[in-house]
Design brief:
This protein has helices at about 10-25, 25-45, 60-70, 80-85, 85-100, 105-115, 120-130, 135-140, 150-180, 185-200, 220-230, 235-245, 255-275, 290-305, 320-330, 345-360, 370-400, 405-415, 425, 430-445, 445-455; strands spanning about 365, 370. By secondary structure, the chain is mainly alpha-helical. Strand 1 and strand 2 (about 370) form a beta hairpin. InterPro entries: Cat_transpt.
């Protein structure tokens, strides 16, 4: 009897199987591969002559930096974004910030859901990991912000909420832009551009004037703040609010900590900027009290990852720059379009400090106990984030010889994907731009995801050493 011939797989089939093995074995590293691949793709698209308004091939450093800033939804730029790129280039940029803002793994899962009409376990795990970095490290548990069984609904929420919020903000911005005398088609484009850049927390501008014509308009600035806030609180929080908006008691601890910490930082940041800039006539010290409050609150929201600015950041007092550094480093909510170490990380660190001060063995908040491994993860995030910022700052200082406060501000803005700048970024040589691009990449993919990806596998320890307490403090 003859043996049945083995059917060899095609090249595409073997590639697909290889991708499946990588995605199943190391989802964190797979996510980094996707981000890196997209950066290479968008660098190629932006390097095309049709991407620039002049029709010339842009310098490689500008194309790479812009691609990283777009995919990482940072908002920093080395060129005038409004005039340097053509219509095709701006289309590429809008597509890139949407992909980067929603999250590459989430987009991949949504595409898989559309194609298969049903999420398999692997796609659920990938999407769940994107929504909660803890799952990369500790596996899937039921006590998280979004349960694994709800991932399919979360993905639909991501897609629908992003579209609805961006369209709603754009429609509300449109009348104000029309009042400014902008033609209808241009106004439609600008309103959608502003809306997308606000929700994705990017901060790119559609025109050379940018936000200047609306710098004192409470309606326009208020809508930009709303868009930034909704993008920065995170999709798990939006999902929870949509499901249980009338029952706050059913909100998870993650939702409560995110909302409370975000609002607290917004108010405290605005109060700090108001006090520190009262005597600075180069920013908003010369404005009337109402405008001073509006500008202080707007700056507080934008430093959290928004990227828009109504003032020259370089004119801020040194004390205000330091406050902005802290707010940018903290950033927004987990699984959001914002960057930074995330507000829940800060909340957990403070819960640990309060527990230690009161002599409690456990961290507790809103009648819930926070496990110790969350604290270890939070400390790791802060440590790796601070190390990245310190290393990048030292290198940029050596390259640029610029003042420390300006270097630190732009480096933290890059790491936290904030997008605000003192003007240093555009003045850096190519080597400095590459360093900032790497900092943006590190900040966007997440320090926890990077650490998990670098570890090929988790080591299981089968023994415990004797305990000994070092002196701390």
């Amino acid at each position: 009897m003859g043996s049945t011939p083995v059917k060899r797989k095609s090249v595409l089939g073997r590639i697909r199987d290889s991708i499946d093995r990588i995605a199943a074995g190391t989802p964190a590293r797979f996510g980094i591969y996707i981000f890196a691949g997209l950066i290479v793709l968008f660098t190629g698209l932006l390097s095309l002559p049709i991407s620039t308004a002049s029709g010339e091939v842009p310098p490689l450093a500008d194309a790479v930096f812009t691609a990283v800033s777009v995919i990482c939804v940072t908002g920093l730029s080395t060129v005038d974004m409004a005039t340097y790129w053509s219509g095709f280039g701006h289309s590429v940029i809008l597509l890139g910030v949407q992909i980067g803002g929603i999250g590459v793994l989430t987009v991949a899962s949504i595409l898989g859901l559309v194609i298969s009409r049903k999420l398999g376990l692997r796609q659920r795990l990938l999407a769940a990991s994107d929504a909660n970095p803890l799952r990369i490290r500790k596996g899937v548990t039921e006590a998280q912000a979004v349960r694994l069984g709800e991932t399919g609904s979360l993905l639909l929420t991501v897609a629908v909420s992003a579209l609805v919020i961006e369209v709603a903000v754009a429609l509300l911005l449109l009348p104000r832009i029309l009042i400014e005398g902008v033609p209808l088609l241009d106004a439609l484009y600008q309103s959608f551009y502003f809306s997308v850049m606000a929700f994705t927390n990017t901060g790119f501008l559609p025109t050379s004037e940018g936000i200047e014509p609306y710098a004192s308009d409470i309606w326009f600035l208020g809508l930009i703040m709303v868009g930034v806030f909704l993008g920065a609180i995170g999709f798990p929080v939006i999902y929870a609010l949509l499901r249980n908006h009338k029952e706050p008691r059913r909100w998870s601890l993650h939702v409560k900590l995110t909302l409370v910490t975000t609002l607290l930082l917004f108010v405290l940041g605005g109060f700090a900027f108001y006090l520190l800039e009262l005597d600075n006539r180069d920013t908003f010290g010369a404005l009337d009290p109402g405008q001073q409050i509006l500008q202080a609150l707007f700056l507080s929201m934008m430093t959290r990852s928004g990227g828009f600015a109504t003032i020259d950041i370089a004119e801020l007092n040194g004390s205000s720059l330091l406050v902005a550094d802290m707010l940018m480093f903290i950033g927004g909510g987990s699984a959001s379009t914002a960057g930074g170490i995330k507000v829940t990380t800060l909340a957990v660190l403070f819960l640990a400090a309060f527990a230690e001060a009161r002599g409690n063995d456990e961290m507790e908040s809103f009648e819930r106990r926070v496990p110790s491994d969350v604290l270890r993860l939070g400390v790791s995030v802060v440590l790796w984030g601070a190390t990245t910022v310190a290393a990048a700052s030292i290198i940029i200082l050596q390259i640029s010889k610029a003042p420390l406060d300006h270097v630190l501000f732009d480096v933290i803005s890059a790491f936290a994907t904030s997008g605000l700048s003192t003007g240093l970024t555009a003045a850096l040589p190519d080597s400095g731009q590459y360093v900032l691009a790497a900092t943006m990449f590190m900040g966007r993919i997440g320090t926890v995801t990077l650490a998990a990806a670098l570890a090929a596998s988790q080591r299981r320890q089968l023994f415990r050493h004797a305990e000994e307490r070092p002196i701390v403090g």
